[in-house]
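fyi for ur records
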Amino acid sequence: MTGTLITKQNASGQSYYYIKLSYKDPISHKWCQKMISTHLEVKSNKRKAETKKNEAVANYSYLEMLPEEYNANIDPDITLCDYLADWLHRKKNELERSTYEFYEYRARRYMHTLKLQIPS
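which gave:
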């Protein structure tokens, strides 16, 4: 991950520092960018902006890591319906009952549309 300071001028003519983070997405392996405002005017704030840039690089380093739930062993030929049923089963104890029931209802409606059945 790299961080770069850039300046932008607003409509009233004031210039502010922004941080442009460039990172490689761990799943797609494509380069992505994220812009963060420092809320610091350009005049007399270069050191503060550099400090904020270094903090941002450290704070957003998670963007280059795989999510905890990512599993490279998932069958690439799995259907959306099967994946959704599996995900719903795994999340059952983590979700509020009403949320789980809503997700299950939506999944069943989707499966019904496709003329499939979700296992209970």
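Helices lie at 46-59, 80-91, 97-113. thats all i got for now
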